[in-house]
């Protein structure tokens, strides 16, 4: 079962509209609707806020501002991950960024709430702030650590001496813009008061973090918060934690004793959820004439909100990617009065690889060497900074297999040398690398007396395929047909998990299911082999085979339903766990990542510089695949994001106000069907025995990593023009 291209088990519910998303819940009777009023300055303070006319408007039940909002828990910096901390709102008249909530209007209908927001009269003092990254790029500080607790700086050997002595050098700056997760389902919730408890239907990635964060903010016992999120319409980092709409809805529901719904509009999402920091990156590569790197430096400067530090781990994978004796990486932050930086799909690797893999292409060009060959020449034997072995890399296999399948030998050797009519044609490639993470996760598997199984965990399915892969792993573990397995996810009453994020969800929860099934099998065998009424009595459990809903030992067989019914009249269950990676010795002993190689062909209009992707291929090494179909979808989706990062995505800040000016999906461009021709993703057969017992690693984000650089490198190959300021738009190529 594991690895098969099983169709999504939740597919029929989704295409028939029976999968209920957060804002569609209707529990607790007629809800009230809240609408957030956002600050119209980017820095300063509220000097007067008048809610009287809004309160008198039709349908309005209450208007909450900093003047009447309940006291809330403060952020606790001793909690290592921001998403588990309190997220207080409306705490003071101070404004920290444009769009910050200054009021919540609660009314009988959504329209009445929204209409009344215009009647909230706010006066501000100030307005001037630090909004322009380029103007403040040199005013930096070093954070203590970067995202995921990784070190801020690293150094090996003597970079300056190594770089100074190199025969061929690349020294370039690359810039990447503010980018957003923008899942199809907006951030939204219904909060229903039930006695002293709150039931929170919220679109989120990590149920345990949502509960902890809401409880800490509202200063409630976490046991009184019940999270429900069976279906999530995409997250991509923007739902790792809880945002102001959920805190405001919870405060309003508790105050009004009625259910309250709040959803963010698409425009509000741009101001209230957080974005990938903008970055300026300097990459220096020094190599011998044979292409062997002697020195690598990757220095990153990013924006951060001054109160909510966030440092994307942009240079982190540069520490592991290529061999070179002299190395240096650093991350610096410049505080700006903008929304906080946040995890956005492949945080770190996506912008970092745009820079490093562009620089590698520049080095190949300077050497007159094939870019694939340059990567192969710099393949390390051990992790070059940690000096530990790779668990399971196969990057060179990805490069060779990708080059063969793509027809890389047809790449134009000289840039701007191939023309088809108006179109200049070019090939580009780049490498993918992403860290593999693991967190504490518990899963319960239960066998009923009818021989069917139920898998329970608070893990979420963001549309990624969790329901399906857990069905497969449980069916495999118990020898059941998949339609005899039911998966229950996304409720805080279920055993807690690390949820979906960082590409860890699938491997984590599958490993826990696999282990739960192993202990369940053991319980069943102990019962059957020791039971005189069983045909398996006295046989050796070590010879047992679980298949087709039965246990077979030698020639004898008994149905699971009979074993359960006779020995466990109420059903039988077992739990399986994974632990925090910091407590797993393999994380210290090995460098554990996923890898890939991207190949892209573009056409560039020789008159207008319009760039069209013509085809794209990614070949990946991710250990064992859990479902061939959902994995391929994840990888292709990631590659398309990479195309967006290369050619389209960019949120632009108004330097006068700190607002994002293109704050909707008409103006913040992402690839649409017409932008994406033939794209294929291939996964090498694999099994990473250091990652976990299933040999599986995540596929959610590795598809994005490096994909954009492959496209940008193809644009260079087509035109001879190197654009280092992403996205590569036509006016920069002309
Ligand atoms: Mo991912 S950016 O950790 O959802």
Automatic annotation (TrEMBL):
SMART domains recorded: Ald_Xan_dh_C (SM01008)
Annotated Aldehyde oxidase/xanthine dehydrogenase a/b hammerhead domain residues: 16-128
Pfam family, one: MoCoBD_2
Name of the protein this chain belongs to: Molybdopterin cofactor-binding domain-containing protein
Organism: Nonomuraea insulae
């Amino acid at each position: 079962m594991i690895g098969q291209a099983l169709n999504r088990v939740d597919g029929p519910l989704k295409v028939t509209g029976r999968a209920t998303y957060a804002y569609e819940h209707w529990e607790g009777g007629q809800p009230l609707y809240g609408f957030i009023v956002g600050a119209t300055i980017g820095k300063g303070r509220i000097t007067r806020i008048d809610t009287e006319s809004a309160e008198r408007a039709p349908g309005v039940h209450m208007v909450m501002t900093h003047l009447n909002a309940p006291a809330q828990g403060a952020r606790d910096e001793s909690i290592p991950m921001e998403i588990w901390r309190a997220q207080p709102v409306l705490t003071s008249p101070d404004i920290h960024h444009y769009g910050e909530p200054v009021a919540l209007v609660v009314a009988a209908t959504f329209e009445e709430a929204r209409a009344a927001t215009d009647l909230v009269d706010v006066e501000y003092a100030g307005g001037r702030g630090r909004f322009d990254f380029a103007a403040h790029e040199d005013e930096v500080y070093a954070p203590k650590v970067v995202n995921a607790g990784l070190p801020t700086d690293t150094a090996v050997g003597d970079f300056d001496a190594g770089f100074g002595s190199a025969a061929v050098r690349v020294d370039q700056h690359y810039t990447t813009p503010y980018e957003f997760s923008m899942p199809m389902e907006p951030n939204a919730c219904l909060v229903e008061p039930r006695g002293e408890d709150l039931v929170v239907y919220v679109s989120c990635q990590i149920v345990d973090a949502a509960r902890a964060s809401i409880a800490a903010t509202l200063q409630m016992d976490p046991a009184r918060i019940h999270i429900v999120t069976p279906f999530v319409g995409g997250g991509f980092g923007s739902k790792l934690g809880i945002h102001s709409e959920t805190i405001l809805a919870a405060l309003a529901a508790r105050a009004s004793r009625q259910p309250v719904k709040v959803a963010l509009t698409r425009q509000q999402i741009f101001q209230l959820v957080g974005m990938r920091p903008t970055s300026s990156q300097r990459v220096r590569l020094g190599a011998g004439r044979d292409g062997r790197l002697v020195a690598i430096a990757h220095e990153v400067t990013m924006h951060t909100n001054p109160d909510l530090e966030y440092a994307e781990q942009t240079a982190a994978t540069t520490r592991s990617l290529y061999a070179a004796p002299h190395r240096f990486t650093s991350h610096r932050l410049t505080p700006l009065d903008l929304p906080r930086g946040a995890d956005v799909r492949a945080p770190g690797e996506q912008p970092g690889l745009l820079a490093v893999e562009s620089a590698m292409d520049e080095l190949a060009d300077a050497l007159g060497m094939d870019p694939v060959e340059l990567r192969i020449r710099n393949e390390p034997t051990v992790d070059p900074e940690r000096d530990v072995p790779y668990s399971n890399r196969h990057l060179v296999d990805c490069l060779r297999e990708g080059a063969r399948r793509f027809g890389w030998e047809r790449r134009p050797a000289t840039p701007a040398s191939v023309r088809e009519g108006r179109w200049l044609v070019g090939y580009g490639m780049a490498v993918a690398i992403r860290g593999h993470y693991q967190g504490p996760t518990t899963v319960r598997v239960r066998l009923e007396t009818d021989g069917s199984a139920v898998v329970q965990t608070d893990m979420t399915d963001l549309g990624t395929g969790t329901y399906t892969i857990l069905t497969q792993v449980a069916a495999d573990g118990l020898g059941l047909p998949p339609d005899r397995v039911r998966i229950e996810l996304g409720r805080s009453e279920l055993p807690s998990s690390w949820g979906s994020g960082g590409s860890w969800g699938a491997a984590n929860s599958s490993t826990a299911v696999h282990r739960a099934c192993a202990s369940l099998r053991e319980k069943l065998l102990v019962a059957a082999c020791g039971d005189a009424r069983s045909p398996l009595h006295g046989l050796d459990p070590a010879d047992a085979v679980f298949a087709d809903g039965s246990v077979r030992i030698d020639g004898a067989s008994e149905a699971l339903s009979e074993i359960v019914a006779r020995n466990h009249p109420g059903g039988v269950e077992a739990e399986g766990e994974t632990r925090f990676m910091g407590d797993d010795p393999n994380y210290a002993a090995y460098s554990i990542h996923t890898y890939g190689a991207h190949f892209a062909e573009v056409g560039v209009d020789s008159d207008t510089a319009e760039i069209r992707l013509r085809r794209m291929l990614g070949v990946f090494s991710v250990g064992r695949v859990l479902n061939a179909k959902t994995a391929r979808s994840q990888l292709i989706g990631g590659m398309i994001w990479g195309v967006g990062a290369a050619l389209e995505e960019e949120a632009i800040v108004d330097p006068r106000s700190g607002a994002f000016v293109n704050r909707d999906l008409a103006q913040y461009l992402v690839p649409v069907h017409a932008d994406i021709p033939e794209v294929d993703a291939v996964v090498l057969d694999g099994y990473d025995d250091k990652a976990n017992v299933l040999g599986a690693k995540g596929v959610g984000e590795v598809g994005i990593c490096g994909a954009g650089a492959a496209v940008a490198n193809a644009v260079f190959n087509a035109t001879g023009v190197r654009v280092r300021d992403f996205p590569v738009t036509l006016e920069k190529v002309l």
